[in-house]
Amino acid sequence: MRGLWLIPVAMLAACGPIPVDRAEQQCLDRARLAAKPRGMVSVGATSSGDAKAGLKLQISSDYIMGRDPSAVFDACVYQKSGEPPTRPLYSFPEWRG
Fold first, then answer.
1. pTM (predicted TM-score)
2. What pLDDT digit, counting tens, does each position of 42-81 carry?
3. Which residue among 18, 40, 46, 93 has its CA within the 20 to 30 Å range from the CA of 4?
4. Which domain of life does the protein's organism represent (predicted)?
């Protein structure tokens, strides 16, 4: 019973701020979804000749609300790290908004 108090403490520690560079990488995906929806279509056939099709679509509330991806990125980084981003969204080579 003595070590049970460690579980809630460890859970609270996991909720704390993360380093800014890690927050920036995580928030790039949220900014991408704010810029445009993402989707995938699949079509195929089984060995018995049956046709198969699928659709996967991701649309964020940020996109629906028309929020600026850069503002979404800034707010996300601040929320996760407690600090502003070290550089603007548009300066990341990974960004292709």
1. 0.72
2. 888 888 888 888 889 899 999 999 999 999 999 999 999 9
3. 18
4. Bacteria
DSSP 13-82: HHTS---HHHHHHHHHHHHHHHHS-EEEEEEEE-TTS-EEEEEEEE--HHHHTT--HHHHHHHHHHHHHS
CA distances, 57 to each of 37, 39, 52 (Å)? 7, 4, 17
**For residue 82, what are the contacts with CB-CB under 8 A and spacing of at least 6?**
17
Tokens at 69, concatenated? 């991806």
d(CA 70, CA 78): 12
Q: Sort 95 into a burial class: Cβ within 10 Å, 0-12 / 13-18 / 19+.
A: middle
